[in-house]
Please model this.
Amino acid sequence: MWGGRFAGGPSAIMREINASIPFDKALWRQDIAASKAHVDMLGAQGIVTAEDAALIAQGLDQVAAEYEANGVPENWDLEDIHMTTESRLAELIGPAAGRLHTARSRNDQVATDFRLWVRDAMDQAELGLKQLQVALVSRAGEHTASIMPGFTHLQTAQPVTLGHHLMAYYEMIGRDRSRFADARSRMNRSPLGSAALAGTGFPIDRFRTAEALGFDGPTDNSLDSVSDRDFALDYLMAAAQCSLHLSRLAEEFIIWASQPFGFVTLPDSLSTGSSIMPQKKNPDAAELVRGHSGRIVGCLTALMITMKGLPLAYSKDMQDDKPPVFEAASLLALSIAAMTGMVAEAKFRTDRMRAAAELGYATATDLADWLVRQANIPFREAHHITGSAVKLAESRGIALDQLSIEDLKAIDQRIDDRVYAALSVEASVAARCSHGGTAPDEVRKRVAQARVALGLEEQA
Ligand code: ARG
Model:
């Protein structure tokens, strides 16, 4: 393709280090689509004849059909997907193939192909995350009033509802979806026609190719266009942050599935056994989601470091942009699918959750709040009184509401037996009815809103 200037061919090492075809063959659909848009435009602008444009377009369809049927051949001498396709086109249609690359460079070509690929990956992530939200909302709807211990520092803090806990992930995943959508709208401009770096003297129509490829319009600076990989970084940042959420959810399932917790029975379909311990059922899928997030963050780091310090415009370092994006995309898709299955199919052991919520003096705050409300005691003092009650109950190995009224009065004579109604875990969650709180009514309200937002229900 560029032999004219060279006396000798590349060494074996040069061929190997240079070849991106082993991974960029994944761009073949985008490469064909962009070439078809380009040649259609060249024909319409009279830069190539209508006959040549039609011949090239047909030839590209034939190359695509071959790729579809047999895969993309991997010849290192052809370096990348762009040269592989063009060389096959030349074999099929002859010298007219040489006109396809008029007013174009591999620099704007790869920028365009890769953008198209990343745009699809963003759309897929968005779709997969929506399915995960559907699963979360549907399980939350079943458990708006199922009580479990809420934790801070992984220490029992206050009772919450399982529905509320699951809906926390609905919110996180919603932010992930909006990050992908936001990245998509920012990146949706076409670099095609920027050529090598400076634009072209041919009378091309960049608006036409942009529209044909579903872009909102062309990019506005050719140097930026061929050297910009922000769209890939935006994708990886959204993917990395999303993977952190998936990892945290996975971690909850891992803890909940452990025998001392026993809050959840994982679906057999997403667990494995042990080759030596017959009783084991291991949360491997969840552990791998947790593990994959490390790799996805690594992909983000890899591309950030690749891009850092590159002068304008294109440098070959940028060929290394693809493997981390491809790797992150496949790890993310798997992780989303695994967590969707986990949420949809897990059996929540609400009896165990409720029993655990009774432990650890989870309603101590309710006693303090009761003292504030019923006895008009300043919260800090109420906090201190409650601490003494917890200390006493703990020394006897009993729950707060098992302390007799005499015991409680001995701690503070302003306490009377109406306090017991406030000390149950049911009363505790029902009381937390502030906006976004854990009260079953609040959770029901949020679940209903989410169902409308997800299109599962008409607006009431
Ligand atoms: N395979 C290259 C890449 O992925 C295509 C662009 C090559 N451009 C160049 N001037 N060598 O980045």
